[in-house]
Amino acid sequence: MRTKIYNLIILDESGSMNSIWEQTVSGCNEMIDSVKVLQEKFGDKQEHFISIYSFQSGTEYSRYIIKDMPVEKAAHITIEDYIPNGLTPLYDAVGVTLSDLFVTMKGEDFAIASVTIITDGMENSSKEYSHEMVSQMIKKCKEKGWNFNFIGANIDEKKVASSLNIDNSMSFVQNDDGVKLMFLKDRESRMRFFRKVNRNINSGMTVDEFYAKMTEVSKGYFDEDKS
Questions:
Q1: Where are the beta strands (DSSP E) in 56-189?
Q2: pTM recorded for the entire structure
Q3: What is the 3-state secondary structure (H, E, C) of the chain?
Q4: Residue 180 belongs to some domain of the structure
Q5: pLDDT tens across the length of the chain (227 residues)
Q6: How many CB atoms lie under 10 A from the CB of residue 202?
Q7: What is the rounded CA–CA span in Å between residue 219 and residue 197?
Q8: In CATH, what number is assigned to the domain containing residue 132?
Q9: Where in the sequence is the domain holding 122, given as residue range(s)?
Q10: Residue 224 contacts by C-beta under 8 Å, 6 or more apart in sequence?
Q11: For residue 225, is it within any domain?
């Protein structure tokens, strides 16, 4: 049994991210490389795709830098791809990308998404999606075994994550060293998580059993252990 894994990074590109511009680009490239390592290591049971969606105020500026690409074909992003500016339409970014993934994954029962949100501030400019709409979308996705992780600076990330029905959260310090550490912790967490996923993918599983197992291994995503 081989399951498709859709790795989605929803990345704040508002003006306040300018202070960590270059380090954020570098960290995203490390993320891409880490998913490539996962594909090499667990490719017998996992088929990885990657998307990076950056968001700032104005729907014409929020966009996919990479969308649903087989990770082995994904190239590094550049500082020209990511240019911080504007406000923080977090709910719109989550709503748009999850809606897109619903379409992409339609009919793929034995597939999951791993969604990581990175932001340095509070929602302040969404126009299409509300807090309630997004939190209910996330709740629905989790019922299908999707994994959600929230990484925030300058906010109460646990409170924000919990309000969105996201169980896994982590804070970071908004400077170069803090961003480096954040991306390092994410890579380590991602490796632990997909090692657990690999151990829990078994031929003969029902769809409900698959969803239940994926939900179980999602717990404690950022917790350090020896698994």
A1: 63-70, 111-119, 147-152, 168-171
A2: 0.97
A3: CCEEEEEEEEEECCHHHHHHHHHHHHHHHHHHHHHHHHHHHHCCCEEEEEEEEEECCCCCCCEEEEEEEEHHHCCCCCCCCCCCCCCCCHHHHHHHHHHHHHHHCCCCCCEEEEEEEEECCCCCCCCCCCHHHHHHHHHHHHCCCCEEEEEECCCCHHHHHHHCCCCEEEECCCCHHHHHHHHHHHHHHHHHHHHHHHHCCCCCCCHHHHHHHHHHHHCCCCCCCCC
A4: yes
A5: 899 999 999 999 999 999 999 999 999 999 999 999 999 999 999 999 999 999 999 767 999 999 999 999 999 999 999 999 999 999 999 999 999 999 999 999 999 999 999 999 999 999 999 999 999 999 999 999 999 999 999 999 999 999 999 999 999 999 999 999 999 999 999 999 999 999 999 888 999 999 999 999 999 999 986 44
A6: 11
A7: 12
A8: 3.40.50.410
A9: 3-218
A10: 188
A11: no
C-alpha span between 54 and 65 (Å, rounded) = 7
Number of domains comprising the chain: 1
Whether 223 is in a domain gets the answer no
Q: Which two tokens stand for residue 48?
A: 């990885």
Instruction: Measure Cα distances from 50 to 120, 122, 218 in Å.
Output: 22, 25, 18
- Sequence-ordered strand ranges (E) for 71-199: 111-119, 147-152, 168-171
Query: Does residue 102 belong to any structural domain of this protein?
Result: yes
